[in-house]
Amino acid sequence: MRVLVVEDEQLLADAVATGLRREAMAVDVVYDGAAAQERIDINDYDVVVLDRDLPVIHGDDVCRRIVELGLPTRVLMLTASGDISDRVEGLELGADDYLPKPFAFSELTARVRALGRRTTTALPPVLERAGIKLDPNRREVFRDGEEVQLAPKEFAVLEVLMRGEGTVVSAEQLLEKAWDENTDPFTNVVRVTVMTLRRKLGEPPVIVTVPGAGYRI
């Protein structure tokens, strides 16, 4: 899942990004509304965690732009205000969910995952295919009933492949969904991660390489 965190409190923004990365999400971070709009114009995000009171360009205007562009991106709006009228106003702007500060990180993570599921065709919370069972919320993977321990990026790649439901997922798509914007697009990190993932999942192999196209399960 690709997430953009937009928050002008840099310590909070960086802490949220670090936490979401530990949950196997690819996360970009910006600290003002103008930078957020630039990223949204360039990258495809599943979810934007958007502080409402942003400098340069207000969070409301960032939210409006996402709606005007007709993007499938879901918006989780954050605010320090506990006023119900502010929450209603934010939702009316086009935000998909609203979370007041301070918040529990576990709740933020759950809301981001729930919104991420709404950017694609509805799938069950626990994904199952080819003897593999993947639970994004618990960060657990089983193959034929045996638990498989995966690093965050391996888990992220497997989740993207599982959500493909048998379709071919290109290396570019995996790079887009499982890594952030600081990753070199010419790196071989996708190939190396898929190789490691194959080894950990065991025999017989379930990840198929489609020459010149990508990978599928």
TrEMBL record:
Residues the record lists as 4-aspartylphosphate modifications: D51
InterPro entries according to UniProt: CheY-like_superfamily, OmpR/PhoB-type_DNA-bd, Sig_transdc_resp-reg_receiver, WalR-like, WH-like_DNA-bd_sf
Keyword Calcium: no
Keywords noted in UniProt: DNA-binding, Phosphoprotein
DNA-binding region range list: 124-217
One Pfam family, short name: Trans_reg_C
Domain OmpR/PhoB-type, chain residue ranges per copy: 124-217
Highest taxon listed in the record's lineage: Bacteria
Residues annotated as domain Response regulatory: 2-116
SUPFAM superfamilies: CheY-like
Keyword set includes Phosphoprotein: yes
Protein's name in the database: Response regulator transcription factor
Organism the protein comes from: Streptomyces iconiensis
Lineage per the UniProt record: Bacteria, Bacillati, Actinomycetota, Actinomycetes, Kitasatosporales
